[in-house]
Write a structure and sequence with these properties.
The chain is α/β, with parallel strands linked by helices. The protein has nine helices and seven strands. The strands form two sheets. A five-stranded parallel sheet has the order 3-2-1-4-5, with helices on both faces. Strands 6-7 form a two-stranded antiparallel sheet. Strand 6 and strand 7 form a beta hairpin. The two termini are 14 Å apart. One of its GO terms (cellular component) is plasma membrane.
């Protein structure tokens, strides 16, 4: 049964991650990178590592995230991180974007020539994916970017890009908006315990989501993406553009919902 569960989880994860950009190092120069915080700090770490090596990758870096329901998890992730934990006391209570900025300033900024580094904008008022997009656009009005790469928690990239598409939908020529999850999480059935585990995680599993949390995130996204009265599309609360959910994804979601309910 767990083998079947892992297959369905991976179908959802691949879809939700929306890896338009598989690798930052190969994307070429873009006008703007929007980095939304994730409690899996590997994403931010990869962005910052890449900018140290390729500071001309983007003209503008927007760090997104205010005080929301996941902020405490971000603070805990900093405290657990083998390197970043040294600033855990300093970032306690800060909005998520300010946490990212503190990490950049403490561990990366000194490695980049200030004249080559991208302009960094702090968006620390948003509390949802939708307000990530609306608040980021306000900051970017003057620069009018033509290309934006959105980096978000892999479980929420597709929805966040749909939020940005909605926010820019009033423009005759909106910017090209691409999703980048940094990595696509995959799970497998652990042959020893019979439980789900991450398949080749990019970091120690202690720095990943707890498995229950990951499943909760993945399962919570499909209802949000649906364009019905309960979803976030135009027929629902209107915070995202219409999203087509493939039949394969809907079927995997339905099977997985039944299996998870049966296991409880």
């Amino acid at each position: 049964m767990d083998d079947d569960i892992s297959a369905d989880v991976n179908i959802l994860s691949q879809y939700l991650s929306r890896p338009d950009v598989a690798s930052l190092s190969s994307v070429g120069q873009v006008d703007c990178i929007v980095l939304c915080v994730s409690s899996v700090l590997y994403s931010a770490q990869t962005v910052f590592d890449t900018l140290v090596q390729q500071p001309s990758l983007t003209k503008t870096l927007v760090l997104c995230g205010g005080l929301g329901h996941s902020t405490e998890l971000v603070h805990k992730a900093v405290a657990l991180h083998p390197t970043f934990k040294s600033i855990a006391a300093e970032i306690c209570g800060l909005p998520e974007a300010q946490v990212l900025y503190a990490i950049w300033n403490s561990f990366y900024a000194s490695q980049v020539d200030p004249s080559a580094a991208p302009r960094i904008l702090i968006e620390d008022r948003s509390t949802t994916c939708a307000t990530n997009a609306t608040e980021a656009r306000k900051l970017l009005e003057a620069s009018a970017p033509r290309s934006i790469v959105v980096i978000q928690d892999p479980t929420m990239v597709r929805r966040t890009v749909a939020c940005f598409d909605r926010v820019y939908s009033d423009m005759a020529q909106p910017p090209t908006i691409l999703g980048c999850p940094i990595f696509v999480p995959r799970v497998k059935c652990d042959g020893t315990s019979g439980q789900l585990a991450y398949e080749t995680p990019p970091v120690n599993e202690a720095l990943m989501w707890k498995m229950d949390r990951f499943l909760q995130l993945v399962m919570g996204e499909i209802p949000r993406l649906r364009d019905d009265e309960n979803g976030y599309g135009p027929k629902g609360n209107g915070s995202i553009v219409h999203v087509d959910i493939p039949d394969e994804v809907e079927q995997a979601y339905t099977r997985l919902a039944g299996k998870i309910a049966h296991r409880r």
